Here is the input.
Amino acid sequence: MTSRLAHRCCVAVGHNGQVDPVNQSSAPEWSSDMTAIEQIFGNRARNDIIRVLAAEDQMTYGDLRDRVGIRDSTLHRHLRALEEYGVIIADLPPGQRQGRGVRYSIHRSRVEALGQAWMRYLFGKGAEEPASSRDHRTS
Here is the structure.
């Protein structure tokens, strides 16, 4: 899916006070994980799918559709993207799904790894864990 994704561009103010485009994907810290983070966590429906799956062991397509409340074509597109980025797992490979009930589950360690990569990107490689995480940690 990455090959079809357009590079995001943001705006920065240059030293001369003029607005200069900055291509995020050219930053040395920007990686395929950062592209996945942007595409997954920057989308409300995909976040909803992850949250629903995180609360359940496995769910069928129909159960997900009912719980998330989005159209079939939209859900299909989001599930395909989430599977391509490795954050959800289907119990059947794509070529064997026709007419069969596929069950989806969260790939929790992948979601956690992406969250950690996002924090490293935002706060720097050697950055301390955010205080809110330290405050809520249980022993």
